[in-house]
Write a structure and sequence with these properties.
The complex is a heterotrimer. Chain A is an alpha+beta fold. In chain A, 43% of the residues lie in helices and 21% in strands. About 2% of the residues of chain A have low confidence. By secondary structure, chain B is α+β, with helices and mostly antiparallel strands. Chain B is built from 6 helices and 4 strands, in the order βαββαααβαα. The chains are: A alpha+beta, B alpha+beta, C alpha+beta. The interface between B and C is small, with 6 and 8 residues.
Amino acid sequence: MTVSEPGTAVGTATGTGAGNIDGQAIAITVFSTVKWWGKHWLPLLFTTLRLIPPLTRDLRKLSFIHFARWTLIRELPANGDTAPRTRLRYPHLFFESNFNDGWEEYIDAFSYVLTRGMSLFWASSYGFPGALPTGPFKDYIHRNELEAAHYYSAYPEATATMVRKALALAPAVADFAERAVRLSPAEFEGAWSAFLTDAQDLL
Amino acid sequence: MRARRAQASPVTVLTPIVPGERDALESYLTGLSDAPGGSPLARVPGTHFARWVILPDLVTDPKQPAPDPLGSPHLLFTSNVDGSADDYLAAVADTLTAEAPEIWGRCVGCPRPATGAGLARYLRHNAIGTGLFFAAYPRATVQAVTAALDVHDRLVRLLVDTQPAGPAAIRAAFLKEFRP
Amino acid sequence: MTIATPRIRRTPPVPDLADIQGGILRAYGNDYSRTTYLFVNVDETRAGLRWLGRLVDDVTSARPWTAGKPATTLNVALTYDGLRALGLSAELLATFSDEFRAGMAARAAQLGDVGTSAPEYWDTPARAHVILIVNALSEDDLTGRLADLRADLGRYEGLSLMHEEHASLLPGVREHFGFADGFAQPAVEGVTDEKAPGGGVRDKDGWRGLALGEFVLGYPDESGRDSDGQDLPSAPAGPLGRNSTYGVWRKLEQDVALFRETLRTSAAAFPGGDEEKLAAKIVGRWRNGTPIVLSPDGPAADFRGNDPGANDFLYHDVDADGRRCPLGAHIRRSNPRDSIGFGELLSFRHRMLRRGVPYGPPLPPEATGPDGQQRGLIFVCYVASISRQFESVQVQWLEDGNVFGLGHDKDFLIRGPADGSGKMTVPGEPPFFLGPQPTFVTTRGGQYLFVPGITGLGAVAAGTAG
């Protein structure tokens, strides 16, 4: 276990080491060793998910992930004489996520909501206990997780949901501002009310 | 500053740490959060989220038949960026001129000085392609995100402040804040 | 969306009611209108053990009463400091959960107990050892029992009665802001299955109660339930790990005058000027308890919270956008049911058995300002994991609104930000904005507790717990 005890961070980012937290954002970094068949299976899975976006709908709907990635590492390049090219005995799966709200809640969501998806991603990893029950799955992730030495977010106080809402709101505000200039104070009242009604989910 | 295409992409670079340098590197990196100007990554344009992680070695699961050691600790750098990974790594090399020698300067095979085109080449050489990348808002640049968040905050403040006022006052306040 | 059905069908475990303390799985009921919490410190271990040893036989268990209701009940809860003072070994102490060992005061910053809610302003002891919980049917019963307990304590050198907190039900089982309270409880499988609709979780056969291990240690929880039932949640070692539970005790002072004043002034700008409706939007219920999501235009005159089916409601299908019950309404945040999406999958692991009781006299309805009296709620809940159940709700759902798409909005009713910023959106055409946010509720004390089973308590008293 290489993640320190949950720190004393204040805010929703809870349940992980202080190195993994910047504001509301949490970093998760997980490596696992992949069985031989994973080197065929995982690229196929990645391609399928890339080509058929509806398959990642639930991942998108979970709404607390900014960015995530899965990468299969099979070899490392040479770096001069002292570090020759290394072909790894097994493929290794690297997973990272940038998310918000607590670590426990995040893994619970993976277990309960993306049960099948999590199994597809980690089925070929040694030691994967299954996405449910959550207890052993959390232990597995904990065991294979690394704490960041430095973690950075460009907008640490914003969550993924806030970002998406703001990105939808900003053009609506700009658009309404264009119109508002031309409206008389009497016309403005109705238009303002309609604008707020339309935009209320984004506020 | 390079113009950045509005399409998020992942950057992953894994480099071997020079034997004996791991502790110094780790303490340098953990100290970055307390740097007076904040994280140096704030200066690299197009960085949404990024991290440095010391990888002591690859995982050896109790169930795997044989260990698969890397032999030495490695440094993992990942970032989620606007535009292409190559452009981004060039920007890293151009921007982190003070920090990069302290970081990748402690890695095997890194050119000296660890800056500029040489460093960018080294980082590209050790970059690892991504299998699957998920981005919640793939077409928004860092700049667009921070600007949108600012609009949101200003509008909410205005709503709470002006609600009791009449439409004329609200209109005036809104146009004062958001006039095109 | 429903929870995956376990691979193995099984009958729920039978709780050992004779060993589990009373008042946890089921409330003692509204006949017990008075509750007193006695804070006792153990300055001398041997005295503490002897005192507890005598007390064990008097502790009320969860076994159903066959010979009528006793005039009073007695329950014993311990803090981490208390377990230490009673001489538990370091090895055993290390098996308690991190947050329990830290104690509530140490978690204040995470919990939002800052500003005037910070521990330095609490009026109950920040460090306590043993809390005795006494329920009584009448004032006389209470007086008699407390006199006995005080006299008993007085017989031991090395024990001190640090504090007494007296709480009692208000007329109509309302809390001080004037809302019927306390009936929307989680259903426990094999115990309170009748509460399952709305209080449990849906699997493919419909509603069922939550696994016993969500609330009592030593039984499978919702994680273990999905496996073969052998996988028990984390619990202290030895006899303390069975039929025990963790508890949360909080003294929450309510500023009723400010609440009324805010309703009055805010309603002036609220469409229709309807104060009662605005109050219902903030809370999520009309004053008699009718959920506003079921009855958006006014309370159902015949609503009674404890009636079968009264808690059988959800949000997502009828009110995803919060036009009836705002997404930020207090009951929708503290128990979001299916409001987060994905059915109850993201909420059902965060339920607590709440056993709170108000304290202080009601503010007379005609009062126009503060009367200088202190009043509020003694919030008590029982959970198998303080961090997953209590703290998660406090931090993720009440202190911050992101999960519900509400940004950093805090719960408008109970979590006023120290800096006077903050707002609540009342969805509508157009939406209405409540703000800046006043502080109606201030934390005045708090403890993380451990409530052992009666066998476990006996082992502590005998010095054999480990």
